[in-house]
Amino acid sequence: MEKKFVEALTSQKDDFSKWYTEVVLKAGLVDYSPVKGCMVIKPYGYAIWENIQKILDEKIKATGHENAYFPLFIPKSFLEKEAEHVEGFSPQVAWVTKGGDEDLFEPLAVRPTSESIICSMYAKWIQSWRDLPVLINQWANVVRWEKETRPFLRTTEFLWQEGHTAHRTLEEAEEEALKMLFVYKDFVENDLAIPVIAGKKTENEKFAGALHTYSIEVLLADGRALQAGTSHNLGQHFAKAFDIMFQDLDGERKYVWQTSWGVSTRLIGALIMTHGDDYGLVLPPRVAPYQIVIIPIWKNDAEREKVYNYVDEIYNILKRYFRVKVDKDEEHTPGWKFNEYELKGVPVRLEIGPKEVDKQEIFVARRDLRLKMSYKKENMVEELSNLLDDIQKTLFQKALKFREENFHNVRDFNTFKEIMDTKRGFVKASWCGDGECELKIKELTGATIRNLPLDWKEEEGKCVLCGKETKIKALFAKAY
Ligand SMILES: [Zn+2]
């Protein structure tokens, strides 16, 4: 066997951004594509996305939504119907102007989001209060022309789900927007083990065309924030632009109230940047492509047969309960494999040699804490199941602790600026509520209001920039 070791990664402290790029490439999540700004998601990365989809799709359906699919192309005139919407998205829209050799009569946008095409259909489908609510979700790709891109976090084409609903009343739409925000919060915290702060976006930061927007915000290991999901109460903006009307119980024709909400492959970027370390990825068991990898260790043919038989026996038991992979590749040394699966973030590694066979045990290494232990074969299913649960919980607790350590209550602007210039993190500060003041803060510090957290109570204070009396507390950070 050759003595080749996995090349060391750049450490997070030395260069976090370089570490990130190396991890996504070396762990086999993505590759650069021939198309600028677009990424190829390789099988290992795509398997994470499939697990995300599977779990989230169940939650979306459990809350009464159905999946459907709408066209990739959107007529230019549709996109232009809602004024704020077109203004917000037009700098990023990719256009199709030719079909074969012929110029198109009307250019088609490659969807940057699907409100307009879906609303045009809802106008046809919705006639009466009996048709409401409409609760539809779509899993799709979207395109937003980006100048600067980074795998998963910002790419020209990305994958996501977008929910689009229509309701009889404003209250119902508001309830829906909040319900889905909390579906996302539950999913990101429990399945991805990432703590989030749920709140309302400011007018400056809301979705183009929404009445208001809610978001969940994550603090990443380099002290920057990432918006991990959004849910919009669209009010009647699109209903009026697309003439989506229904006859209400009182016989009157009224506009519907709408919502839209989405999360994307960006979540994978959040996963990597929240849990990863200097050895590579650390994946939460719930979404890891395989939760356990088994590595046989042997020196000669006699040992090999003995170990392989035992490994097969273990594998056949474990595969009924867990996502398991056995690596019998004989080209690489066990040492090489240990590094490789650490890099890939596999939650649990079993190292099985002749000693384990003799003792009828398994030797276990957990990726997150890099601890090792042995379990008896007869108890292994229960032990491993508890271990995976513990890893899932430990990852969340560790991320929460990091967020708390990097959370700053700030009163004066100099401290605010100094934090943003150095260690970054989340800052809680008073804000007067004025959009101009918010923009000025951004200009001076690079920090934006991530959201106005829903569970923060009103507090008397003075705006961190202008000093005006206010009760609003905002969550600030430099964001991706
Ligand atoms: Zn102010």
The CATH superfamily name of the largest domain is: Bira Bifunctional Protein, Domain 2
Give unreliable regions as ranges: none
Amount of beta strand: 25-35%
* The CATH C-level class name of the largest domain: Alpha Beta
Helix percent band: 25-40%
Question: Architecture of the largest domain in CATH?
Answer: 2-Layer Sandwich
Amino-to-carboxy terminus distance: 44 Å
Overall pLDDT metric: 96
For the largest beta-sheet, the strand count, sense and barrel status come to: 11 strands, mixed
Rounded to the nearest angstrom, the radius of gyration is 25 Å
Number of helical elements: 14
Q: Write out the distinct hetero groups bound to the structure.
A: zinc ion
Number of domains: 3
Short description:
With 480 residues, the chain is an alpha+beta fold. The chain contains 14 helices and 25 strands. It folds into three domains: 16-72 and 116-275, Bira Bifunctional Protein, Domain 2 (BirA Bifunctional Protein, domain 2, 2-Layer Sandwich); 292-387, Rossmann fold (3-Layer(aba) Sandwich), CATH 3.40.50.800; 407-477, C-terminal domain of ProRS (Translation Initiation Factor IF3, 2-Layer Sandwich).
Molecular structure report:
The strands form 6 sheets. The protein has an 11-stranded mixed sheet, with helices on both faces. The protein has a 5-stranded mixed sheet with strand order 16-15-17-18-19, sandwiched between helices. The protein has a 3-stranded antiparallel sheet with strand order 4-6-5. With 480 residues, it is an alpha+beta fold. It folds into 3 domains: 16-72 and 116-275, 2-Layer Sandwich (BirA Bifunctional Protein, domain 2); 292-387, Anticodon-binding domain (Rossmann fold); 407-477, Translation Initiation Factor IF3. Helix content is 35%, strand content 28%. Helix 2 (43-62) crosses helix 6 (170-190). The chain is globular, with a radius of gyration of 25 Å. It binds zinc ion. Zinc ion binds at residues 432, 434, 437, 463, 465-466, 468.
